Amino acid sequence: MQLGLFAEPDAGPAGLRYADNFIEAASEQALIGRIAALPLQRFQFGVFEGHRRVASFGYRFDYALQRLTEAEPIPDWLLPIARQVEHWAGLREGSVRQVLCTEYEVGVGIGWHRDKPHFDKVLGLSLGSPCKFRFRRRSSDKWQRHTLEALPRSLYMMDGEARSQWEHSIPPVEARRYSVTFRTMNRT
C-alpha cells in the first residue's frame, strides 16, 4: 500500500456532505421540466438584479424590506423530493420549510455569500450540468479554499462550520444548470 503525501485528504469544510446520483436521470428530467415551466424571475437584491432566475416557496427573503416573508406554499410535486432529502439528512419529516428553484443560463454564476441566518441547514440538488461549488473562509491573512464538483443529480448539505463559517459561490456555468435548494429554519 502506498501512502499519499498528506496523512488525510482535504475532505472540505466540516459539516459539508455530498452524495452522487441522489435521484434517477428520469426524475432529473421531470424536475427540470417542472422548474422550466415555473414563472421564474430574475433574483432581486433590492435595487440590484441577479442574472439567475428563481422561484421561492414557503419563504423568501425580501431584500427591499430586509426581512423574511411568506411565499407560495411548497408545491405538491416538490414534496416527495423534499421528504427524500430530509430522510438522507436525518431530519424529521416537514423540516424543509423553504425551497428555491434556480435556473443558471450559460455564463451565469453566484458570488461569494452565506445564506441568510433565518435558515439553518441548506441542502442543494444539482440538475442539468455540473458546477464547481466553491468554499472559502478567512484564516489570518489568507483564505482556506475548497472546491466541490457538484455533478448532475447530486445532493449536498451545508451544516455546522460549512454553513456558519465558510462562504460559498458558483463561478459562471458552462452549460444550463438548474438547482433546487431546500432549507430548514433557524430556531432563533
Describe the structure.
This protein is mainly β. It has one domain (16-185): Jelly Rolls. The chain contains three helices and 13 strands, in the order E-H-E-E-E-E-H-E-E-E-E-E-E-H-E-E. It has helices at 25-36, 79-89, 160-164, and strands at residues 16-19, 41-45, 48-57, 59-62, 67-70, 96-104, 110-113, 119-127, 131-139, 142-150, 155-158, 167-170, 177-185.
Topology:
Blueprint: E1 16-19, H1 25-36, E2 41-45, E3 48-57, E4 59-62, E5 67-70, H2 79-89, E6 96-104, E7 110-113, E8 119-127, E9 131-139, E10 142-150, E11 155-158, H3 160-164, E12 167-170, E13 177-185
Antiparallel strand pairs: 1-11, 2-3, 3-6, 4-5, 6-13, 7-12, 8-11, 8-13, 9-10, 9-12
Features:
188 residues; mainly beta; Jelly Rolls; 7-stranded antiparallel beta sheet; 4-stranded antiparallel beta sheet; 3 helices; 13 strands; 15% helix; 45% strand; globular; disordered N terminus
- CATH class reads Mainly Beta
Query: Percent of residues in beta strands?
Result: 35-45%
Distance between the termini: 49 Å
Helix/strand/pairing category: mainly beta
Task: Describe the main β-sheet briefly.
Answer: 7 strands, antiparallel
Mean pLDDT: 90
* Helix-strand pattern: EHEEEEHEEEEEEHEE
How many strands in all?
A: 13
The gross shape turns out to be: globular
Strand order of the largest sheet: 1-11-8-13-6-3-2
Rg (CA only):
17 Å
Helix content: 10-25%
Summarize, please.
With 188 residues, the protein is mainly beta. It is built from three helices and 13 strands; from the N terminus they run βαββββαββββββαββ.
